[in-house]
Amino acid sequence: MTRTVDDIEREAERVDVAVSNGSWTCNLSELGSGGGSAGKSDTGRKAGGMNRQASAPEIYDAADLRMETFPPLRQVAGDIILEGLTILAARPKVGKTWLMLQIAIAVSEGGYCLGDIQCESGDVLYLALEDNKRRLQRRLTKMLGVHGREWPHFKVAHKWPRADQGGLDQLRKWIDSADNPRLIVIDVFARFRKPASPAKQSYDTDYASISELQTLAAETGIAIVIVHHLRKSEADDDPLDTVSGTLGLTAAADAILVIKRTGQGTTLYGRSRDADEIDKAVQFHPGTALWTVIGERDQVQRSEERCAILKVLADAREPMSPKDIAAALRRKDGSIRFLLSKMVKDGEIIKLKRGVYAVSPSPR
């Protein structure tokens, strides 16, 4: 009998239902003839039932949790990199690979990075998926010179299976084989994650691509850093909104670091589930290809005009009006008023009820 399109669609629907119930069995010789059987095989039902079984979830008393003690989170690289999954995002050619190489070397040696940040010693695996041996050699030589140095705890790979093709299993095998696994760097994430069609990119897809790595880091107590990009059109309100992809990426990660260049300099901003927010002014030194932390962003990158206003207010014996401040600086009254309102919002100065300004008792 000739099968119509309607017959095929009805059969496909019947198979979908049977498969979801765990009761579909099919003889390969019957494919295309309407032969498979749904709901007729005890073996199929039993296998499906077994597959659907899951371990019982753990339920505990919140009061018991209060009495438990946990070891502090490992600071793999000070307050920059903690154990768990971290996303490091920046625009192309900003220097994110240089930063992670610097941190990776410091961790493998138990040395310092970004100036004076002490790193915990341990084994490091660096997946340099965009580099080859020649380029990596050039990078390392520029950073450290040609003098001999041995890094028995610093391992590198340039090719690695994608996450859905055994990549996660290979990471776990390395962790199990290392004496003291401390840090894994995946540079870049786009070459490790399961490829996603732009048309199908969604919160759930991005979240799933991160969550397995986050689980691996949590189970093993190591730090995993994935190097990623910022979107072309950057948002100004929240640095996390500039990370390429949906919010599913940043939602699944334990911490996010963003390197951003502005007219006032370069910042390293970080937000974590388990640590305080960081907002550092940093500097990249092209000659050595090393990064250093200069200080807190709001102190280092304060504009010259803001510094001038703070000096005028600090030198004054009493609060000053916008007109008086503008006169002292020989600036226009309107622009000074606008800047004063921003400085009040940033906590640098305070506005008194009678419309005059003074230095904040505890400027940030």
What sequence of helices (H) and strands (E) makes up the elements?
A: HEEHHEEEHEEEHEHEHEHEEEEHHHHEE
- SS field, number of helical segments: 12
Would you report the number of β strands? 17
Helix-strand makeup class = alpha/beta
For the termini, the CA-CA separation is 82 Å
What is the beta-strand fraction? 15-25%
As residue ranges, the low-confidence spans are 15-51
The CATH topology of the largest domain, please?
Rossmann fold
CATH class of the largest domain: Alpha Beta
How many domains in all?
3
Helix share bin: 25-40%
* Overall CATH architecture of the largest domain: 3-Layer(aba) Sandwich
Protein name: RecA-family ATPase-like protein
Region (Disordered): 32-53
Pfam families: AAA_25
Features:
single chain; 364 residues; alpha/beta; Rossmann fold; Arc Repressor Mutant, subunit A; 3 domains; 9-stranded mixed sheet; two-stranded antiparallel ribbon; 12 helices; 17 strands; 36% helix; 23% strand
